[in-house]
User: Fold this.
Amino acid sequence: MNVKLNEIKNNHIITDDLVFSAYLKMKGYHLIKSDRKKSKSIFIFENGNKDANSLKMEFINSEFLRFYNELRNLKKLI
Assistant:
């Protein structure tokens, strides 16, 4: 699979970002495939006609990302 990550292609969202993938799952996007190439995992979701950039902006401004960052900071303490 040779594609640009975090893009929409053939009505699929393709990403290697685990946290973004968890966000998409939480928002109800259907995971249709996951693939592992070397040390990288690729996640492919069905897209409901949403623009990839607007999805990423929605994710960046979400409470989910804030939660993840706080979790990561707490993990650094232990």
About this structure: Strands lie at 7-9, 12-15, 31-37, 40-46.
